[in-house]
Each structure stands twice: as structure tokens, then as C-alpha cells.
Amino acid sequence: MIKMIGALALLALLVQNPVQALEQEEPDIEVVVTATRVEERTDRIPASVSVITAEDLFASGKTTVVEALESVAGVSFRSTSGNASKAEVSMGGFGENAHGRVLVLLDGRRLNRPDMAGINWLQVPLESVERVEVVRGSGSVLYGDHAVGGVINIITKKGAGELAVSASALGGSYGLNQERAGVEGAAGRLSFYADAEHTSAEGYRERSAYRSLGAGVRLGLELGENTAGALSLSYSRLFYQMPGALWKEEMQADPTGAKNPADEATDQVLNIDLGFSAGGGEAWGLEGSLAYGLKFIQTDLTSFASYTDLALHTFALTPRFSLGLPLFGLPSRLTLGSDAYLDLLDLKRFMDKERERKDFEAGISKLSLGAYAQGEIAMLEEALLLSAGLRYDLARISAETLLTAGSEIDAAETHQALVYDLGLVTRPAERARLYVKFTTLFRYPFTDEQASVYGYPSDEFLSDLKPERGTQVEAGGRLRLLEALSLEGRAYLLDMEDEIAFNPATFRNENLDRTRHLGGEVEVKATQAESLELSAGYAFSRAVFSGGANEGHQVPLVPNHRVRLDSTLKLPFELALKACGSYTSDSFVGGDPANAQEKLDGVMLLALSLHYRPSSVPGKLELFVGVDNLLDTRYAETAYYGFDPETYTYRTGYYPSPGRTWKLGGAYRY
């Protein structure tokens, strides 16, 4: 926090003396789309934004989007299997079910599922990613449900220019192997991009193997001047095992062991997206997307004698219109849009793995409709920008019992939300930006939070479960101190009501008492004479219960401190040495709001990699060898306190993370 306070103080000094700073121009202002849902320069946005480019990914040696996002301050992940396939993302200081409070988009289309299950991050081949935009803080006004702690938008390549091909492969410890290939180009008015990726590993722990296959095609067509259409199709298949939690003594004896003998799942995802855009320069713009998604998930939880098939159909329509017009003689812009999503779930539960004896079936639907308006006005020759937004959102969750040998869940519940935000951005100089923002926010219950359908302990529709609501105020900015040194950060205060979590004592999803989240992030980037690149990120978060029986206690699974340092040293012979160090402080385990159990230990991790990029080879060739968790540290990044059916007691189960992992690979583009 001290660094952040210092950054804001420096920005305040620049506000007092803008003339001197105006003498130099900011050379690397980016244009992003996620923060405002239209193209906007980052120096005009009342938010903290980070961008990861395709070049960053190419040069990093990362294997998944998760690995790339871990370098962004304020973004963290937890995994119960030790791999990225179902990693749970967290932003804004949230603990259990944190992924429900981060909106993840693929080309602006929501990837979040309506049920409690996490995103399959491997459904997006890394080769297809053009850039990843991360917006910290609430985006409820523009995006509605889930956008509480932040928004992550994965933007894929569209294809342009001459024919280009790319390919990469890598191998590593625990049977890791990955192969990617892509082709892109344009012919006249038509552009295209196609890719495929295969990833598999046996895993660090027993029964933690996974196999992923993904492929996609994107076609773009210029229909006229400033008018275009696009069609995207993608398919992915993921198989993964679930080794389960270990008691502490088991983890200390052998962290590679598995608790569950045969728990596993298979996810298949098909996405079709038809987009349209038209515009008249800065005067007006019209964009829209019509999308369909099919997900089929087959889960075998042998340890609980539970076998389920879930078919999920998602239909989405998201039109948006923007208009630039003078207001009181000042430049302004108004954006109007709506989001309509219909999710239809068919859940079948069986008593045997062969699925010959079905004991439960239910149809669950979630219809959500939202309309929003966002406006901004520029004053003082665009050195001061004011923005305001408003959204009305409505969701109806319905459940119908189709077959049951026990409880029925026939019921429905309607939720609604009215949220708004106010923002101010001052740009006293091209090298400085300062902003402040106030927003209200919400999150609807997951469908299986509202309708408990997995028999733990019984099937039940929880009509008393309320949506999460909150208010957030944040302030931050960006400062470029020197040509090669930049600093960006923010501080926030977030008050939440009715957060939803599973209560292991009552076996029900319940609204928690009020919580307060105080925190912030700061990122520093420096480059020295093209020979050394440094980036550092620090995130602070203190989340506490501000009411009820646990008042003053910390929210479980929220570490107070996260620090990350990345460096690249350019060596002779076109070599580069990359080093990464991270530290995560301790936290209380999940299911322990009373803070009465032993904490989850903090951990420090180190990684090294050596890269070779020969300039004599046509195109771009990158070869690398690296090692993660260099010191082979034994640790668990997540743990939960709950009921042990074997001993009929409450205990803490730990999910060990991988030890030292080697990687060797290469990538080529031409």
C-alpha cells in the first residue's frame, strides 16, 4: 500500500504542475474495448487495465491462458487438481466461489456458466489469442452478472494480410505435452483464422491426469465501408481426473497421493458466434452478436456414488449502439445496449457409472435480460472526463423435477438489480492519468446454488437465497516517470451484502453476513537499454466480516499479500534468461469463517527459463527450456474445512500443488 500511496502522491503533483509534464508525449497508450465495450484509449478510462499481447505470449513460454494471467497483479488462481483446466480465478479479495465474481469473456461473449462449475480454460487455444484485457474492479453496469471483482476479455485473432502459419510444441515433467498449429490470412474482403491445440499430462498427483483438444475457425467479411460480419466456430473436449483432498498428515507423508480412486469428468463445448458491426467513424457505431453454446458434461464422482450428465444450451443476443455528439458544445459519447441470455440445463443423475439406473432428472433454466446506458463528456480540452452509467437487470431461475425418487424442486425465483456508476478521469499530462470511480454491483445465485440438485444432503430449491449486492469506490492512475519506467495502481473499498457460500454445518448454500474488502494493486514496469526488462506486481487485500457472529474475522481463502517479480535479461548469442519469483501470504482455509482452524501456509515460488530467438531464421522462431517451482516447494494453494464421512468429524482437507516441473519447447511463426 505504501507504493500505491506514493504513486498517487506523484500523480497529484503532476496535477498541480501539468505544463512541465506536457512537454513529453506518452508513446504507448493502448486502445482497449473491455472497459467501456467500445474502443477507447486507456488514458480515458476510469479503471485499472492490464493487457497481455500475442507477442507477450509467444515470447513467454506459457502453456495456458491461466499461466499468462498469473503475471497480472490482482489476478490469482486456485486449483483442486493441480492443473489449469478447471482453475478457479479470483479478483478483488474473494474466497470461496471467487470465480463467480469474475466475468470471463471470449471476444466479448460470456464464458461463465450459469451453474457453480468453473470455466474450462483450455477451451481457448493459446495460439488463437490476439490479446487479453484485464479490467480490475466492478463492471456490473456494462456487463451485469458476475462482473464484481473484475472482467477478463480474451480476444482472439481474426486473420489479416498475407498467409501466415504458426506451430509450437513442448514437453515436460509428469507427462506434459502440447502441440499447437494455426493459419491465418486474407483474400479480398474475406479474412480467416483457424487453429488447433492438444494438451495432455499425467499430473503431479496420482489420478490428476488431463487431456484437452480444442479447435476453432473464424471468418470475417467486409460488407462495405465500415461494415463487417464475422462467424466463429469452436469445439473443445476436456477429460480430467479429480484426485481429491488429503488430510494434513497424508499431504506431509506423500503430496502426490490421491484420495478419490475413480473421480473424473469429461467436458465437451461447442460455440457458434455470428457478429456484425457498422459505423460512421467517431459519429456512431453499431455492433451485435448472436451466439449459441452447447456444453455436455459427464461427471463420475465414485467417491460419492454420484454420476451425472449435464446438457447446457446457451443462447445470447448482445446488440450495442454508440453515438458521438456534442453536449453543451463539449465532446461526448453515449453507449446504449442490451444483453439477453437464456440458459437451459438438463441434469440427469444416476446410481451407477454405466448409467443404467437413473434416480433423478431436472430441467433448470435461467433467463437474464439487461439494458444499460453509459455516457461520457470531455472538458478542459479533454484533460477532464466525466462518465456515468445505469443498468437494469432481471433474471428468472426456474426448476422442474422430471424424475425423482425423493425430493422435488419445482419452483422459480425472480431477481432484479438496478446499478449505476460515476467516474472521473483527469489527464493533466500525456504521461499521467488519475481517476476515481464509484459503482454499485450485484451477482445472481448460480443455478445450483439456488436449486441444490446434487443430493447433499437432499434436493432443494432455496427460495430464500438472495442475490449478492455491494458498493465500491476506487481511485488510481498511471504515471510514466521516465521513458523506460511506468507505474500503475489503484486502491479500492468494497462493501458486500449477502455473499453466498456453502455452510458445512447446515449443508446449505447461505447468504453470509456483510463483508468489507479493502485492497489495491500496483504494477511497475522498467526497461533498461533493451538489455533488461523488469516488471513487478503487488496486490493487497483484507476481507473481513463487518457484521454478524463473525464480525471482525477474515474471509477464508483471501491472502493479505501477493507479490510477483518478472525479469528478462538479454544475453549474448540471442539468448534471454527469464526469472520469476512470487510470494503469497497465508490465509484461513475455506469453510472457516470463525478463523478457528489452522491457516493455509504462505508460499514463495521461483521459476527460470532460457530462451533462444535466432534472427537469421525467416519468420519468428523461439526455443526455450524452463523450470517451475525451482526449489521443489511442497505447498497447497487451497484447502477446505468440512465434514469427514469416514470419521464423522470435521477436518481440513488440502489440495497439493505441483512440485518442480521442467518444460522444453519451441514456437515458430512465418
Explain what you see:
With 670 residues, the chain is mostly beta strands. It has a single domain, classed as TonB-dependent receptor, beta-barrel domain (Maltoporin, Chain A). It contains seven helices and 38 strands. The protein has a 23-stranded antiparallel beta sheet that branches. A five-stranded mixed beta sheet has the order 3-8-9-6-7. A hairpin with a 4-residue loop joins strand 15 and strand 16. It is globular, with a radius of gyration of 25 Å. The relative contact order is 0.13.
List the helices and strands and how they pair.
Layout lengths: L1 H15 L1 H4 L9 E2 L7 E2 L6 E6 H7 L4 H5 L6 E3 L9 E3 L11 E5 L2 E2 L18 E8 L3 H4 L6 E7 L7 E9 L4 E11 L2 E12 L8 E15 L2 E15 L6 H6 L10 E16 L4 E18 L4 E12 L2 E8 L2 E21 L7 E22 L4 E21 L6 E19 L2 E12 L3 H4 E2 L7 E2 L6 E15 L2 E13 L2 E4 L4 E4 L3 E14 L3 E14 L15 E11 L3 E10 L18 E10 L7 E9 L7 E9 L4 E8 L4 E9 L1
The gist of it:
The protein has 670 residues and is mainly β. The protein has one domain (2-669): TonB-dependent receptor, beta-barrel domain (Maltoporin, Chain A, Beta Barrel).
